Amino acid sequence: MKLAPIVGSVLLALAPLVHAQNGTPRAWQQRIEVEIDLPVPVVSLESANPFSIPVDQPPQLVSSTPPRKLDVEGVAHVAAYVNTKGECLGGVPMELPFPGLTTSILEEITGVRFDPAKIADKTVGSWVVLGLNMVGRVKESSVGSPTFELPDPTSPPVPATPIRVAPSGLLLRAPFEAQSGLTTFASPRRLKVKAPGQDADIPVRALVHITAGGRCDRFVPLNLEPGLHRWLSAYLATWRLEPAQKDGVPHEAWAVWSARAQLKLSGIDSNSVTVLRDLSFEPPGTEP
């Protein structure tokens, strides 16, 4: 019976402690937010070529049949200068689908009548980019001096950049309005381009994928006019190869193939022309 006062005293002594724990936090319980600047890590860029597959030796071409009597087509992008009277004074090839078209295209478009460009109701001089769909035929073809090289493991091959032709001095000085300010684009009333047949001797370069079975199943053109991609695709389909080797076993591989192609091209004609409103041209070093 004497324990009751002691228990009561203990409960009374604990009451302030319980109240303190349920009330305002003590100093050691406070949350402190401190910003600490962490060092920025250095990341190393690894030079890698996704087309590089390690093999012991590249593939070797065993047999192939260059195509003949094959229809081909492509789009020529040409910038034409048209004055306020609607006269085309000349042009600049921007991208050509076949070799040897520059002279024929420039001669054909010079002097063609256009409806001139306008700003509101005022006619102005302007540059307009035309898309000419060109069609022709590869009558005969042959390919010589083929070589295969394994891709550089550190960097992918880069397609060749088309050579740009500079405008003549007359066109460099011709006044024009920027395309962004035009309300009406210049448009040819009638335009048809013809280029005579020719024998072309051209370098060809492509990144080709050779299967372990010795066939080419896909490619990336590196140096070839776009109108001849169909010809190259048809040629690659005929390939029979000794595939690449790895540890004495046939293995798939990408390889850079280079050769020279001799093509007999028929006459090349345009069968349609389009004003390309999403492309623009301004002579280098000029301002409207």
What does it look like?
Strands 2, 3, 7, 9, 10, 11, 15 and 16 form an eight-stranded antiparallel sheet that branches. The longest helix is centred in the first third of the chain and has 20 residues, at 3-22. The protein has one domain (60-161, 168-275). The chain starts with a helix and ends in a 13-residue tail after the last strand. The protein has helices at residues 3-22, 102-109, 169-173, 229-236; strands at residues 60-63, 70-82, 88-95, 114-115, 117-119, 122-124, 126-149, 187-188, 194-195, 198-210, 216-223, 240-242, 244-246, 249-251, 253-265, 268-275. It has 288 residues and is mainly beta.
What number of structural domains do the residues give? 1
Shape by Cα distribution = flat
Query: Helix-strand pattern, N to C?
Result: HEEEHEEEEHEEEEHEEEEE
| Percent of residues in β-strands | 35-45%
**Beta-strand segment tally:** 16
- Please estimate the helix content: 10-25%
The oligomeric state is single chain
Offer a quick outline of the entry:
The radius of gyration is 36 Å and the shape is flat.
